[in-house]
Design goal:
Layout lengths: L5 H17 L5 E4 L4 H14 L4 E5 L7 H13 L3 E4 L3 H8 L7 H22 L3 E2 L5 H6 L20 H10 L4 H5 L12 H5 L3 H12 L13 H9 L19
Parallel strand pairs: 1-2, 1-4, 2-3
Helix pairs in contact: 1-2, 2-7
Length: 253
Amino acid sequence: MKKIDMAILSRLISELREAVLKTGFGRVVVGLSGGIDSAVSAALAVRALGSENVFGFFMPYRDSSPQSADDAALFAELFCIKLETVDITLMAGQYTDKCAYISKNRLGNILSRLRMTVLFDKSAVYDALVLGTGNKSEILLGYMTWFGDSACAINPLGDLYKTQVREAARFLDIPERIIMKAPSADHYEGQTDEHDLGSSYEEIDKVLSELIEDENTELLKASGVNNITDRVKRNGYKRKLPIIIGVGQKALW
């Protein structure tokens, strides 16, 4: 796994700028959660497009941590981007309050898809593209909501492992308190990514890097990594476009 340096970040910024402008757009909207992934994604966009062309949205739910709001506001102030808060509690409640039981997993998926609904609507308001914030570790593990936080027009973090995102954050001058906080989707009180996944991102990325970058297929048989490798295989469908059953003479693409 490569160490992140300014050369890699400069290339990422340049290609992000080119990818956005090639679509005919010049602006992006991004969900700012107060966490490191959304901060790094937005910081790259600021470098690529200018702060006046990046619009942040903080979308809390009733159980969201107050620190998340503080960290999103801190980032927006430091990087000079407009930040709007859209509380999704009432939207979610219209559905969840009528259900006899909602598991934590279902609730998380509902909240993630509602947030993306808001972002895609705001992208129409600002004539902008939706900027993704999912990193390579999450994508490989399927630790994301299908058509929720995985939905976006452009994702600058999709080829960076979580540990590489942390390295990038320091080059981009992300506040240390955002870098060091426990990664969390903030769907309910006390939730953390590493608790959900059962391993630290350092351990996960070491396995993923050897499996993907080094093509070490022996890892598939190794004990202690089966949970990680099984997730990669089991969630492959999330990394593909929707299946279209063809009956015509020509494919769509």
